[in-house]
Amino acid sequence: MRLGKHSLLVASGQAAITVALLGILKAGDHFLSAPSLYEGSKTLFRENFARFGIEVEFVDDPHDIEDWRRRVRPNTRAVYGETIPNPKNDLIDIGQIAAFARDEGLPFVIDSTASTPYLIRPLDHGASIVVHSASKFLSGHGASLAGVVIDGGSFDWAAYPDKFPQFSTPIGGPGTPTLVEKFGNTAYLEYTRTIIAGRLGPVLSPLNAFLLQQGLETLSLRVGQHSRNALTVARWLDAQPEVESVDYPGLPSNPSYAIARTYYPRGAGSVFGFTLRGGIRDARTLIDSLELFSRMSHLGDVRSLMLHPGTTSHAHLSAEERDRLGIFPGLVRLSVGIEDENDLVADLEQAFAAVRATNAGTAQAHVAALDEAELPLSA
Ligand SMILES: Cc1ncc(COP(=O)(O)O)c(C=O)c1O
User: Fold this and answer.
1) 6-211: which CATH number, 3.40.50.720, 3.40.640.10, 3.40.50.300, 3.50.50.60?
2) Which residue's CA is the closest to the ligand 1 atom numbered 9?
3) Tell me: the pLDDT tens digits for 147-196?
4) Mean per-residue pLDDT for 68-92?
5) Where are the domains of the chain?
6) What dotted CATH number matches 219-376?
7) Per residue, what are the HEC states of 42-57?
8) What residues flank ligand 1, with Cβ below 6 Å?
């Protein structure tokens, strides 16, 4: 097991992602990313980083290493991905991408928010740096914001002084040591902590640090239960005629099942989407009818949550872009909590009954309207 060498707590997950990458990248640099990411990270990279002169490029097919390789440029400086991207749960092969990044002399930064160290330790599979939003599962209570950057200490920054001059240039002027001379392979975290986070200032408040610690103590119990519940809910949804597809990699029919078995033996996470055949109409009825699931854009909470991505997290995209990403009008995202699984299924059962009743009512009203429309003809 590879433990992180050094870590940095910051004020939010967004802050963790931002400082983790700004510790590596500067204006004029380019980095490669897996295509399926938290929408907040995508807009951060596309819009905010672009204004800093940092260019992100998303690969089309993260499983095709040649697709990554042919996009590497002389100014490419990092590779980025997520463990369990939501809502589609289209898993990447972390070991394969880490090997590619190593070959190219690039650090591999991975967001492990949706998996937590209970389900996977990306450093064991070759990732260089791991980031988490600690506002989600790590806390579990949704009562605080926090983020963390973990340096595996395995990337050899000293081997690439031209690519990463910040670590190999004397810090206090000529004659003073460089960060790699002073800190070896943890030069990155020192730089990110003092020069990036220390100056930009996304400091974690003491109260939020305390709240995070309260949550962390029960992480293993919670994430185990989240994962068991999620599998039960995913199997139940998969058996409903109104459901077109369930994006849960713990189901054998899911395209990510093989990766889930290899990398996530303790459970395939608990934040996933499913698509209703009846589109937005069914999604609306379902969301309005669920009682135990709260309507919330948050995830990784002990309470079960639901969201309609098409009209919330992904509403800023065009309909074509949403279709391309599989964010269809009937897609509902769940973050399955740690309640009793029977209560979760009972809630889903009554909400699906409401969908059926609404559809039957609509069909009856439609027939009645047709009958009425025909009256004058037959009179
Ligand atoms: C995968 C992932 N990373 C990062 C973040 C950002 O975290 P925070 O809300 O703590 O800024 C989120 C938020 O939903 C997320 O889902």
Assistant:
1) 3.40.640.10
2) 13
3) 999 999 999 999 999 999 999 999 888 999 999 999 998 999 999 999 99
4) 97
5) 6-211, 219-376
6) 3.90.1150.10
7) HHHHHHHHHHCCCEEE
8) 12-14, 38, 40, 82, 111, 113-114, 133, 135, 145, 147, 299
